[in-house]
Design a protein that fits this description.
The protein is of the alpha/beta class. It has eleven helices and eleven strands. The N and C termini lie far apart (about 85 Å). The protein binds 2-acetamido-2-deoxy-beta-D-glucopyranose (6 copies). Keywords: Signal. This is PLC-like phosphodiesterase.
């Protein structure tokens, strides 16, 4: 009996040890625990749920090869998505994650995506995750908040001291983790709500450089949004907003439809060279008097790999607890891959019709 108890206790030891060592790391590194939330760079997957892989027949509207769970496993800590109004179905909510239009690429409901992130957060208790939603069809806070609630992820949501004023000091990662408020949620844009105060209006708290870039030499640190900053880096800095650095390229546009530039992703997300992520992070840090961009969002995050430049910006040398994915582009196993041409054609025809009928 005693022996059995002893054996059981001994069997527990490795678990206790691994838990103890895991708890010393925040967002994959012990060195980040005592950093304020805004004083590190969070790697973001731009359009996180919009996939270019077998699941979407390698849709050219896809921005990532691997889904949001795999992104989080690999160290991504900011996930962005667009929320569109779609028709109610028996499957659930009418708020869907679609790229530009639901006829182009529909990745399912907001609720189901939030549930997958919640499950990941349940299993990874020392990680602070940020979600940024583009509110494409002007959903109200109650529309979005109800999805946060039904997915269960709202239990992790951080509530800012004020929904209209930037805090003097953002909490450290450790205090967010200790308080169980490890989910930061921003929406572009949202009218603050007392029922869902965790839905923070993006441009109240952040500024962004221009996202619309087609060449490596196009990248800039100048604030493009909110426009009230008058394109002034001084005004952005003194406003106290956090900097979200867009860092991805589009292919030349066809009928106004932007497709992520897959071929450039390796060098765009690289550490050195003109237009690389590493170069932009250090350039923009200098422009803002030594303050690192709080967020950077990239397409095809595994290329580069983007994580290496972000680790460097954060001074992280020995990250723990990541499951990395191959750096290469994902390609269809056979043939050229469907190019989503059916729906692209539909949109092109719609545009042509709209022009012809003058609406
Ligand atoms: C932010 O990080 C920098 C670089 O690690 C450090 O010098 C600075 O003191 C930090 N600021 C705060 C408020 O922690
Ligand atoms: C994400 O991708 C992984 C690997 O392909 C898969 O095992 C997992 O089920 C996917 N998760 C979701 C929520 O789709
Ligand atoms: C919603 O349903 C209507 C009528 O069936 C259809 O015309 C429209 O395209 C649908 N919208 C979406 C976003 O699915
Ligand atoms: C953590 O919770 C305590 C008690 O509710 C609160 O005073 C403190 O401000 C919280 N810290 C953060 C970082 O939210
Ligand atoms: C931006 O410019 C406008 C018009 O010149 C001015 O009223 C406003 O105060 C400026 N914004 C900031 C943040 O300085
Ligand atoms: C900011 O830059 C944009 C794009 O170059 C321009 O259209 C806009 O007029 C500029 N705004 C101000 C206040 O200078």
């Amino acid at each position: 009996m005693f022996l059995q108890t002893l054996l059981q206790a001994a069997a527990l030891l490795p678990i206790l040890y691994s838990t103890a060592s895991a708890q010393t790391a925040c967002n994959n590194s012990p060195s980040l625990c005592n950093k304020p939330y805004n004083n590190i760079t969070h790697l973001g997957a731009h359009d996180s749920p919009f996939l270019r892989n077998e699941q979407t027949s390698f849709s050219t509207s896809g921005n990532q090869y691997y889904n949001s769970t795999v992104q989080l496993d690999a160290g991504v800590r900011l996930l962005t998505a667009q929320v569109h109004k779609a028709n109610e179905t028996s499957a659930g909510s009418q708020w869907h994650l679609c790229h530009t239009s639901c006829s182009l690429l529909d990745m399912g409901t907001l609720e189901s995506w939030l549930s997958s992130i919640k499950s990941w957060m349940d299993k990874n208790p020392n990680d602070v995750v940020t979600i940024l939603l583009v509110n494409s069809d002007n959903a109200a806070a109650s529309d979005l908040g109800s999805q946060f609630k039904s997915s269960g992820i709202d239990k992790y949501a951080y509530v800012p001291p004020s929904t209209t004023t930037i805090p003097q000091n953002w909490p450290t990662l450790q205090s967010l983790i200790s308080n169980g408020t490890r989910l930061m949620t921003f929406v572009a844009s949202i009218t603050p709500s007392t029922t869902y105060p965790y839905l923070m209006d993006e441009f109240t708290f952040m500024f962004e450089n221009d996202f619309n870039n087609e060449k490596p030499t196009d990248f800039s640190c100048v604030p493009a949004r909110p426009t009230t900053l008058n394109n002034s880096t001084d005004q952005a800095l003194s406003s106290g907003r956090m900097f979200l650095m867009n860092h991805f390229l589009y292919d030349a546009q066809l009928f106004g439809i932007q497709t992520p530039n897959e071929n450039a992703a390796g060098s765009t997300n690289g550490q050195t060279g003109v237009g690389s992520l590493g170069t932009s992070l250090s350039t923009c840090t200098s422009v803002y008097n030594g303050r690192v961009p709080t967020f950077t969002i990239v397409d095809f995050f595994n290329r580069g790999p983007a994580m290496a430049s972000v680790d460097k910006a954060n001074g992280v040398t020995n990250p723990v607890g990541r499951i990395s994915v191959p750096e290469e582009a994902l390609k269809p196993k056979t043939g050229g891959g469907k190019k989503n041409s059916g729906s692209l054609l539909a949109v092109v025809l719609a545009v042509v019709a709209a022009v012809a009928f003058g609406c």
